[in-house]
Amino acid sequence: MNRKPTAGWQTFNVFNLLFLTVLSLAMFLPFLNVLAQSFSSSEAIVTGKVFFLPVEFTWINYLYVFSDAAIWRSFGITVYITIVGTLINLIATASLAYPVSRQEYKGRNVIVIMVLITMVFSAPLIPNFILMKGLGLTNSLWALLIPGAISAFNFFVMRSFFMQIPSEIIDSGRIDGCSELRMIWSIVLPLSKPVMASLGIFYAVNHWNTYQSALYYINKPALYPLQVKLRQLIMTDDISIDPASSQFSALAHMDPEGIKMATIIIATIPIIIIYPFLQRHFVKGMMVGSVKS
């Protein structure tokens, strides 16, 4: 029997809707302002005429960004870090989470405690830098890929998911003569698509936004990822100019704000585009991986 919602429940729903609406606008309107500035003229941006709609619409900011080899190089490095780093993360996390999720592995509790310690007590920056330098990883993209190969939080989520895979499925694979690697590849991983997609998003966003690690361990401008290049662009107005391009030269000297905003949009859009395709797996993976029967 359906019960009629009480007045208190209806009031709560109204205030909840209003709160979420205001919160959504607080997150969306700044992005809309940056988008509008990226399509506006330098004069309109400097005079403060741009709010949520472009003023004196122009494509020149994006034309500059698309013609700047340094920005494209940083963009390519970020794409490489995101793809390769996410693959390393998922392989390493699954390789550790699966064994400690099975009852037959006797040392699993010790491993779990060790991972939990790293989650509570993180290593300071200076020892990390000395370690990276001692291993010869500084000024190398490996410094952005190897140290964070396994996230403790993601490890516990994936372990919780693996623990919910019925033992009967694993046993049937062993009876059929599957090796452990074949069983993981043919049985476990196909069943783990939701949690893999969920954690893949977490890892990919983290790699796409790589900033501090690159700032600490990389000194070569040719290896700067997109976020460091964007910071360099915003903080120092370090905009490379092709002398043969008079329109870009005039634009950069006049005011680089539009170029900065266009770069911000280009750095943000890829993740926004990818997320909707993985949202279904993301929600399912987080729900299943967070419940232990």
TrEMBL record:
InterPro entries noted in UniProt: MetI-like, MetI-like_sf
Q: Where in the cell is it found?
A: Cell membrane
Question: Which UniProt keywords are present, listed alphabetically?
Answer: Cell membrane, Membrane, Transmembrane, Transmembrane helix, Transport
Q: How does it sit in the membrane?
A: Multi-pass membrane protein
Q: Which CDD domains match?
A: TM_PBP2
Its signal peptide is none
Report domain ABC transmembrane type-1 positions. Answer: 75-278
The source's domain of life comes to Bacteria
Which Gene3D superfamilies does the entry mention? MetI-like
Q: Which SUPFAM superfamilies does the protein's record reference?
A: MetI-like (SSF161098)
Question: Transmembrane region positions?
Answer: 12-32, 77-98, 110-130, 142-162, 183-205, 258-278
Q: Which family does it belong to?
A: Belongs to the binding-protein-dependent transport system permease family.
What is this protein's name? Carbohydrate ABC transporter permease
Species assigned in the record: Paenibacillus filicis
Q: What does UniProt list as this organism's lineage?
A: Bacteria, Bacillati, Bacillota, Bacilli, Bacillales
